[in-house]
Write a structure and sequence with these properties.
Layout (H helix, E strand, L loop, with lengths): L12 E9 L4 E8 L5 E7 L4 E8 L8 H9 L11 H8 L2 E4 L2 E2 L3 E8 L2 H16 L5 H7 L2 E4 L9 E4 L1 H9 L3 H13 L13 H4 L8
Antiparallel strand pairs: 1-2, 2-3, 4-7, 5-7, 6-7, 8-9
Length: 214
């Protein structure tokens, strides 16, 4: 992205510092949002890609996967865009070169990229509103997190089973022997820190939280 114009400072931000990384041919500019204390890092580079992401600190203190469920649910409609799944609607309609969201062991990020500036501005508006003004509808929680359904939808006498996007996603992820080994090692090596827990959510624990826990 192009460098920030130093002659026109934004009143909402205070510039902290600027640092050039010569090996990568980029200039990193750090700003502080006066109202919230949020940090903004701008990386100016001679590149056609316009890239942005919102990163939030999320420190799980259990393996219920609340941060992971919140990551999914936040993208299911917001105050300005109260439509069903604006994230997937933008994937189909925008000129993006990358769109996703991640939940890691101690942070959650919502990144996107586009080579078209108008498309970038549209995605920026959707992402920021989704992250900071999400609807967090209980029905979206049931879809993204977990819910009870009849095993046979047309047979109310069939067994009740848990379903949900994050629930099913983590069942698949934790079925890999390497994932189970890593989680077991982490739980023993980091017994007193957030890394003790499964940030994505353990299948046996995901069914614990309710929508108000978000």
């Amino acid at each position: 992205m192009a460098a920030v114009n130093k002659d026109i400072p934004h009143p909402a931000f205070e510039k902290i510092r600027s640092h050039q990384i010569r090996n990568l041919n980029i200039t990193v500019e750090e700003y502080l949002h006066r109202g919230t204390g949020a940090r903004h890092l701008h990386m100016a580079a001679d590149n056609d890609e316009n890239v942005f992401f919102v990163a939030l600190r999320t420190f799980p203190m259990d393996s219920t996967g609340v941060a992971h469920i919140l990551e999914h649910t936040a993208l299911c409609g917001s105050e300005r865009y109260p439509v069903r799944d604006p994230f997937f609607m933008m994937i189909r309609r925008s000129l993006n070169t990358f769109m996703n969201a991640f939940t890691s062991s101690d942070w959650t990020a919502y990144p996107f990229a586009s080579m078209n500036r108008k498309d970038f501005d549209n995605l920026l508006s959707v992402y920021l509103d989704s992250v900071f003004f999400s609807k967090l509808d209980p029905l979206d929680f049931a879809q993204e997190g977990h819910r009870l359904e009849f095993e046979q939808p047309d047979d109310p006498t069939s067994d009740l089973v848990y379903r949900g996007i994050v629930y099913n996603e983590m069942k698949g992820a934790m079925s890999a022997p390497t994932a189970r080994l890593w989680q077991s090692l982490s739980s023993h090596l980091f017994q007193t820190t957030t890394y003790h827990y499964n940030s994505g959510g353990g299948p046996g624990h995901i069914v614990g939280p309710r929508d108000e826990d978000l």
